[in-house]
Amino acid sequence: MSYKIAVASSDGKDINQHFGRAEQFFVYEVEDDNNFKFVELRRATDFHSEHEDHVTKLKNTIKGLNGCKIVLVTQIGDGASRILRSNGIESFDVEDSIENALPKLIKYYSTVNL
């Protein structure tokens, strides 16, 4: 089963951005239990403007992550995490390189039905 993971990263190498302050999300598609590939870069400025209130910004970010099942960030608040989950997106706080984190996450999800 194929699914997408969004990674909050400033450089495409490390998971290094807070969910609410992320400027961009690198989106990877997991094709099977062992393989993933980068498919697109989603810039936060495409989702919302700098002058939106917190709730509107959160809603628009969730819309911008449409099609993703998981988001990896360095930090996320409990409220934002709950709202993501209610919209079908799981969030994980991770401080690691994308190269190290994705295989670990994929291995974990291969044991549960996503």
Tell me what you see in this structure.
The protein is of the alpha/beta class and 114 residues long. The protein has a single domain, classed as Nucleotidyltransferase, domain 5. Helices cover 29% and strands 27% of the residues. The protein is built from three helices and five strands, in the order βββαβαβα. It has a five-stranded mixed β-sheet. The radius of gyration is 13 Å and the shape is globular. The mean pLDDT is 91.
- Order of strands across the biggest sheet? 3-2-1-4-5
CATH class: Alpha Beta
- Coarse morphology: globular
The CATH fourth-level homologous superfamily: Dinitrogenase iron-molybdenum cofactor biosynthesis domain
Q: What's the total number of strands?
A: 5
| Count of individual helical segments | 3
Structural class, please? alpha/beta
Portion in strands: 25-35%
So, CATH architecture? 2-Layer Sandwich
The major sheet is characterized as:
5 strands, mixed
End-to-end distance: 9 Å
Could you tell me the mean pLDDT? 91
CATH topology name, in short, is Nucleotidyltransferase, domain 5
Radius of gyration: 13 Å
- Helix fraction bin: 25-40%
Q: SSE order in H/E notation?
A: EEEHEHEH
The total domain count is 1
Question: Unreliable stretches, pLDDT < 50, 5 or more residues?
Answer: none
